[in-house]
Amino acid sequence: MKRYNPCLTCGACCAFYRASFYWAEADDATPGGVPANLTEKLNDFRRVMIGTNCRDPRCIALEGTIGESVHCSIYPHRASVCRDFEASWVNGKPNERCDKARASWNLPPLEPDAWFTPEDFPKAA
Ligand code: SF4
Ligand code: SF4
Q: Would you list the DSSP string of 14-29?
């Protein structure tokens, strides 16, 4: 079954929330981790993606145009906070934090069918 990823035409959460995580997730402590040079210290325990700890956030690793075409330039190395963030309906339930980020960019909440291409829709008998 083909799946369509609506996050690739969104990116709102990467330009709305602070992306902070336990400091040792960065690659100067964990090989293959989050590139440390794209992070800054938040406190003694946590780091934050550069660009997300400010008034008009946008993660330094986000490429593209929000609401049109985006991708995370460190996708395989992104932090747990990014991996754990669930888009609405990706697992069959809404996520108000996804909806809130999209609303801040004047994007409507995802609908349950956002994850399917048209040919996946059940056909009427
Ligand atoms: S690291 Fe990637 S997934 Fe995480 S906030 Fe930045 S652009 Fe988004
Ligand atoms: S706000 Fe929701 S739909 Fe948009 S990129 Fe983030 S998880 Fe995906």
A: GGTS--EEEGGGBTTT
Among 4, 2, 16, residue whose Cα is nearest residue 110: 4
pLDDT digits (tens, 9 = 90+) for 29-77: 999 999 999 999 999 999 999 999 999 999 999 999 999 999 999 999 9
Best residue among 68, 88, 95, 96 to mutate for probing ligand 2, ranked by most atoms within 8 Å of CB: 88
**Nearest atom in ligand 1 to 11's CA:** 8
Q: Is 82 in the pocket of ligand 1 (CB under 6 A)?
A: yes
How far is it, in rounded angstroms, from Cα 55 to Cα 46? 19
Evaluate if pTM is beyond 0.70: yes
Question: Which DSSP letter does residue 47 get?
Answer: E
Number of helices followed by number of strands (H, E) in the chain: 2, 5
Tell me the two tokens of residue 43: 């406190």
Residue-wise burial string across 89-104, b where 16 or more C-beta atoms lie within 10 A, e elsewhere: bbeeeebeebbebbee
Number of the ligand 2 atom closest to the C-alpha atom of 11 = 5
